[in-house]
Amino acid sequence: MYLGIDIGTSAVKALLMDDSGAILAEADSPLTVSRPRPLWSEQNPADWWQAVDASVLALRSQAGAALDGLQAIGLSGQMHGAVVLGADMQPLRPAILWNDGRSHAHCAQLEQQVPSLPATAGVVAMPGLTAPKLLWLREHEPDVFRAIHKVLLPKDYIRLLLSGECIADMSDAAGTLWLDQAARDWNASALTACGLQRAQMPTLVEGSAPGGYLRADIAQRWGVPAGIVIAGGGGDAAAGGIGVGAINDGDGFISLGTSGQLFVVTANYQPKPEVLLHSFAHCIPARWYQMAAMLNGASCLAWVAGIVGENDIGTLLEQVEAAYQGPSSVLFLPYLSGERTPHNNPYARGVFFGMDADSGPLDLVQAVLEGVAFSFADAQDCLRQAGTDCACPGIIGGGARSRLWAQIMADVLGRPLQRYQGGAKGPAFGAARLARLALSGAEPATVCLQPTLEQMIEPDLANTARYGERLPRFRALYRQLRSEF
Questions:
Q1: Are the beta carbons of 83 and 179 closer than 8 angstroms?
Q2: Catalytic choice (28, 236, 251, 411)
Q3: Quick check: is 236 catalytic?
């Protein structure tokens, strides 16, 4: 039995997988984000641990006998978050998250100090990444900065509590700007530019390798064997790739979770920072990936559901699908948390445009679904500029549960998409597979198989043409408003 744990932004997800790859039980515990000031986004690391503990205990109540036979644990998590620990290994402040934009001014400072950084780190400096956050701390919270003993990523803070070890995998470390992607090692120049030393960084391992062992007290609490292996694991994007079998050159998928990613595996390190792609180490050896990263995915749907007063998102989507008659006359810029690809603009914001006296709540919801899909069209263009394509990607994440949204995505992108059984489980399932690899030492190809195809979603070519006429207006709307943001 293998336990996969994903430290998400809106929830912690945990699942139990057997040797055949079947999921025996799953549970999740919600999380909230604190936004104490404009552009800020934070979480208390203690909340992650409480949610992990609650999720695993829920698995115990569902499948206690199966959990008794647990052999290994895999971790996945939201990337880029800065968890700074003091000498007592306790957090010095709340974690600064991936969608936090406060360090925008420090990005140019970092690249000025290390001109080679985009080529080495695989992406231009962006405020959501980890390194600029530390420059912000050095300037604005110097007492906290001076007290830093270790810097960890969210999932690796949970690993610390599980194992007592400070360890990170390559794919999660890739999103810090401190990793030399080609060498798969910490970049001394980037660390020095942030006033940090290698000793303050976690030890690096591959995601499919052992990355610590379960402490006896935690094992006793959960009723599982002590000392079992904890895999290196992966950042949520890379772990999602493991979950859908994206391990070979050209394999790809769309992740429609809280944020959004368009992800394609590469056999070699191929940086393309000039088109705002992320070229990062994968969580298995000798693999990398190119990714367009959007800060706003299914979080936009949750937001608009609250705006129109419908708490049941499934019911809301059914209403939109019943009323759907083709592309909406309303446009929506989905930049509620700023945007990375293709704008690198933390100040961008959400906008509804084109409403009239007949526009109602369902029109707004449909416009949100389409606006997120248009942002994926921008992402697809960035990958094409880099010479990268994936003919028929999978679609995973919570947003993939919606048949209507998946169809809109296929129509806007003008390509077929594959929906998988269990595709919404994404990174947690990938984490469980990494746990199996860490225990067995098996080749990834024998474990990381493509899940069962649930549905092939072919684009409606008439709608593709109609959306194609609206896409330039979507892009022009951002350009016209950019100076206003």
A1: no
A2: 236
A3: yes
